[in-house]
Design brief:
Length: 408
């Protein structure tokens, strides 16, 4: 499938954002661990959340998490402590994403897990049982989802769990989010310097309401930054959010976008001139990187972005994907050390009718859809990938005046 996206001249509208995927996915695990019978309010309807729901409702012991990395990591840890035998598999790309840091750690804690195909990668077979717990050492450079997965099952371990983290922590706000949510379910952790300690204790049920997704909001901030005179109210965002990507509001100030907080969301508008240079370390907010790479290029803002090391092992290699796709629009980006991406103003001839390849990556589609604002119209391959986190994205674009036409 291919969509042709054509932009309006300005946006003045109200948008109901999707619920936070990160909060929803953690909430499902914590609800199960606490034996909570209360339904989660405003649960995300995205594919990543749905595969966890399907696993919990399945009569089978074989779970297909498709492209959902969060589900793969969280369910691996969760099922390792549940009585029974389980198989977890996913897409071809999921089977290329390493899971051995999590599996090796679980094995050291008493889990029984075997690789079915390639050593260190899904699919995996789990024989669930109670784990003894203890102390483990992990590098902060691994995915924060590995650490979050371990933290959520830690209270069920006989001796609890202490995680000693070495090196710089990637995506620390996601670990904070996990601990904050565990606290709501009655579990307090002690985080002292580089160690997190959780004692053996039962979870308590909690009535969870999920806030709107700040990562999804970033694409609307991008559109407002590129369309002078635009004003958008985004429903359901909270100023005192648990989500690390709430940093969106502060960072888009540099793009000229102002945020006004309301009781039921935020009001955003382009009220000032954007900066001409932008330097930022995205180690804590890697999911915002593609949005800012595209926004800066389209606004002619030179940039140097560091802390991008986790982008290499996402749904695709996002660093190389952005280099390739931005070149189609005439921008030459430079990568260094697998963690830095920069643009110093270097240009090349843009393609006459660029077609955006999405690489089975929802964020590639949504971060580059606003290119239609600058280039009149944009063609996007496999636009359905947005279902991973924001199923209603294209309908929301239509509702504010974008033309979204299926052309093949």
């Amino acid at each position: 499938m291919q969509y042709k996206i054509t932009s309006p001249t300005k946006i003045k509208s109200v948008v109901q954002l999707p619920s936070s995927k990160s909060i929803s996915n953690r909430g499902l695990i914590l609800n199960a661990l606490s034996l909570n019978t209360e339904p989660i309010i405003n649960l995300s309807d995205c594919e990543d959340t749905q595969v966890i729901i399907d696993a919990f409702n399945s009569d089978s012991n074989i779970f297909d998490v498709k492209a959902a990395g969060t589900a793969m990591r969280f369910l691996t840890a969760f099922l390792a402590g549940m009585e029974g035998e389980w198989i977890i598999k996913g897409t071809h790309r999921m089977h290329e994403r390493p899971i051995f840091p999590l599996v090796d750690t679980l094995l050291s804690l008493g889990a029984s897990i075997k690789y079915i195909e390639k050593e260190g990668y899904p699919p995996i077979k789990i024989k669930g049982r109670q784990m003894k717990g203890g102390e483990v050492n992990l590098s902060g450079s691994i995915s924060s989802q590995f650490i979050s997965a371990l933290l959520m099952i830690a209270p069920l371990m006989e001796s609890g769990l202490t995680i000693h983290i070495k090196n710089e922590i990637i995506s620390k706000p996601y670990i904070d989010l996990t601990l904050n949510m565990m606290r709501k379910y009655g579990i307090n952790a002690i985080w002292c310097e580089n160690s997190i300690k959780i004692k053996h204790k039962r979870y308590k049920p909690f009535s969870l309401t999920v806030e709107s997704d700040w990562s999804a909001a970033s694409y609307w901030y991008e559109m407002v930054a590129l369309l002078p005179g635009s004003q958008v109210k985004l429903i359901g965002l909270e100023k005192e959010s648990m989500q690390g990507d709430s940093k969106t509001a502060e960072l888009f100030e540099y793009m000229g976008v102002t945020t006004k907080y309301l009781p039921d969301g935020v009001f955003i508008s382009k009220t000032k001139q954007a900066t001409d240079r932008f330097f930022y370390d995205f180690v804590n907010e890697p999911d915002l990187a593609q949005t800012f790479i595209a926004t800066c290029c389209f606004l002619n803002i030179r940039f140097v972005f560091s802390g991008l090391q986790s982008l290499k092992i996402k749904e695709t290699d996002r660093i190389n994907a952005m280099i390739t796709e931005m070149q189609k629009f005439g921008f030459i980006l430079q990568a260094q050390k697998n963690s830095i991406l920069s643009w110093g103003g270097e240009r090349c001839d843009a393609e006459t009718n660029p077609v955006i390849h999405t690489y089975d990556d929802h964020r590639m589609a949504m971060a580059l859809a606003p290119a239609s604002i600058v280039y009149k119209s944009t063609l996007i391959n496999n636009p359905e990938v947005v279902s991973k986190s924001y199923p209603n994205f294209w309908n929301d674009l239509r509702s504010v005046g974008f033309e979204v036409e299926e052309v093949s």
